[in-house]
Amino acid sequence: MTAVQIVEVGPRDGFQNIGPFIPTETKIAVIRDLAAAGLKRMEITSFVSPRAIPQLADAGEVLAEVLAQGHVVPQVLVPNARYGLKAITAGAEFLSYVISVSESHSRSNVRATPDEALADYARLVAEAPDGLRLRFNLATAFHCPFEGVTPANAVLDLLERALEICPDAEICLCDTTGRGEPAQVAELFRAAMARFPSVSAWAMHAHDTYGHGTANVRAAYDQGVRVFDSAIGGLGGCPYAPGASGNVATEDVVSLFRDCGVETGVDLAALAPIAAFVQALPGATCG
């Protein structure tokens, strides 16, 4: 079976909900240990308002240190063009931009409608330097905590407009609440891939809030997805999606693919002590 790339999002998605501030040097040490375990691409932080997410107020310091060490390909989440340009100025070369398909979640998350957020994305793309790598995340692609099941057509229509702005972006469908189910995941990826065959890389961001995480990962893999987000120890959850606790755990995803005979390049045994450490951090939460 074809190898996959696991994107470790624990240092961003996993840490962002933790109240007590994690020392910057601790964050760097966790990233270094994850890299030693074979995780070579990570979403290390987010450039975002420190008032909204105080835990990530040291984004610039984390990025600078990770770039200096050169252990991983560092991916940085940004909520809008303003913070995207700040990240670029700080040295970021790989941005992950997120837009919610659901208007209710979009207003809660970034205080903008999807249309407004898409216009802001266009501004970022227009002002970005040559060579910048981009991922486009569609949050609430399967379910919204305020509106329920997300219509597939709404996802596909928003994606079409995003691809008109940046045809080369990696595309990630996000199960923000963890309510997506394997059949829904398979159907949406199948429809998206059929409608947009020019997309070169598809990704899946799964949460395990209702125990569907690894099953949804496998459903996406069976449709041809080869990039998967996960968080060490199952940490995290969207702060603007009530009840959406817990990303799918990196160790569970690595175990799933190992049992299926799929290469990840990650040492499963090396993940156990890292998972135990992050789960023991004051204020840590998981699914």
Short summary:
This is Hydroxymethylglutaryl-CoA lyase. This protein is α/β, with parallel strands linked by helices.
Walkthrough of the structure:
The chain has 287 residues and is an alpha/beta fold. The protein has a single domain, classed as TIM Barrel. It is 42% helix and 16% strand. It contains eleven helices and ten strands. It has helices at residues 10-14, 24-36, 59-69, 81-89, 103-110, 114-127, 152-165, 182-195, 213-222, 250-260, 268-279; strands at residues 5-8, 41-46, 73-78, 94-100, 133-139, 143-144, 148-149, 170-174, 202-205, 227-230. Strands 1-2-3-4-5-8-9-10 form an eight-stranded parallel barrel, surrounded by seven helices. Strands 6-7 form a two-stranded antiparallel sheet. Strand 8 (170-174), helix 8 and strand 9 (202-205) form a beta-alpha-beta unit. Helix 2 runs antiparallel to helix 11 (268-279), helix 6 (114-127) packs parallel to helix 7 (152-165) and helix 10 runs antiparallel to helix 11. The two termini are 29 Å apart. Belongs to the HMG-CoA lyase family. Residues 4-272 form the Pyruvate carboxyltransferase domain.
